[in-house]
Amino acid sequence: MVPCPLALFLALGAAATALAEPLRFVDCGSIDGSIQEVNVSPCPTQPCLLHKGTSYSINVTFASKIESQGSKARVYGEMLHVDIPFPIPEPDGCKSGIQCPIEKGHSYSYLNKLPVKNEYPSIKLIVKWELVDDQDQMLFCWKIPVQITS
Question: What is the number of alpha carbons within 13 Å of residue 107 lying toward its C-beta?
Answer without folding.
Answer: 8
